[in-house]
Specification:
One of its GO terms (molecular function) is acyltransferase activity, transferring groups other than amino-acyl groups. Keywords: Transferase. This is GNAT superfamily N-acetyltransferase. By secondary structure, this protein is an alpha+beta fold. Helices cover 33% and strands 31% of the residues. It has helices spanning 3-16, 56-70, 87-93, 130-144, 149-161, 208-222, 237-243; strands at residues 26-30, 33-37, 45-49, 74-79, 97-98, 102-108, 122-127, 166-173, 176-185, 191-199, 227-232, 246-256. A hairpin with a 2-residue loop joins strand 1 and strand 2. Helix 4 (130-144) packs antiparallel against helix 5.
């Protein structure tokens, strides 16, 4: 895989020409940015931008005005190669809260291990209904100490309205959910993406993360996708690197809370 070519393809397919990520969302290209507007429970934010030092501040102000009028918090998903080079500083000056930086990684699916089994005593439970989503949220609460209601809303919406674009799984130790993860599939692109991977503390380091990557890679391959993409935390990046994922760039969410603007 050529990292520069793959990043260019990602920018084109997954950012510049992205599709709405739920049935209630719309995309609009304005002021040199592509924004998604959804419900308050959905994802609202900026996916792509083509700005310079003469246009950035006006574009930022206009996006703040748009979402403030709706009463929606929103995210500006900033990538390290986005221009101008001081865009992060401009977003912060406009009132954004900077979240931890993640590494955009990708792998050619045909190069990934897809037969890695879960550890002994674990069975993998596909998530297809609200009860399965509740199991995932139990894992998320223990793994990240957050309720993540937006993730729950998104997954419930996907399963109800576009089940062919998502595959989610919970690793069960008997009747206890101990790890969970989601695969999003993006029709019309070469990419499927990994999200919401987490393991409860006492089950970490036993191979669950690798098994869930393999599980999702099998599904993505069966649907004809070429690449798996993930926004990797510092904890997951070393594991993904050993599996064959390559770092393309970094991405840093900048969150605008409307009440604070």
């Amino acid at each position: 895989m050529n990292p520069h070519e793959t990043l260019a393809l990602f920018d084109d397919q997954m950012r510049r020409h992205a599709q709405p990520d739920d049935a209630h969302a719309t995309l609009h290209l304005t002021d040199g940015v592509l924004r998604q507007t959804s419900t308050r429970q959905g994802w609202n934010g900026i996916l792509w931008s083509d700005l310079d030092h003469t246009t950035a501040d006006t574009a930022i102000a206009n996006q703040i005005s748009h979402f403030a009028a709706l009463g929606h918090d929103f995210e500006w998903k900033l990538y390290a190669h986005d221009q101008p080079t001081d865009l992060a500083q401009r977003l912060l000056a406009a009132g954004a809260n900077q979240e931890p930086t993640e590494t955009l990684m990708a792998a050619t699916i045909s190069d990934l291990p897809t037969t890695t089994p879960p550890p002994d005593g674990i069975h993998l439970h596909p998530v297809t209904d609200p009860a399965g989503v509740d199991l995932m949220m139990q894992v998320h609460q223990q793994a990240f100490d957050t309720t993540a209601t937006h993730i729950k809303h998104r997954l419930l919406t996907q399963l109800a309205e576009a089940p062919d674009t998502v595959a989610a799984v919970v690793a069960m130790a008997g009747t206890r959910p101990v790890s969970a993860a989601r695969l999003d599939m993006h029709p019309g692109t070469h990419f499927a993406s990994l999200w919401s991977g987490g393991t409860v503390p006492d089950w970490r380091g036993r191979g669950l993360y690798r098994a869930l990557v393999a599980y999702r890679a099998r599904i993505a391959a069966a649907h004809g996708y070429r690449y798996l993409q993930v926004d990797a935390s510092d904890d997951s990046r070393p594991i993904l690197s050993r599996l064959g994922f390559i770092a393309l760039t970094t991405t840093t969410p900048h969150l605008f809370v409307v009440e604070g603007l």
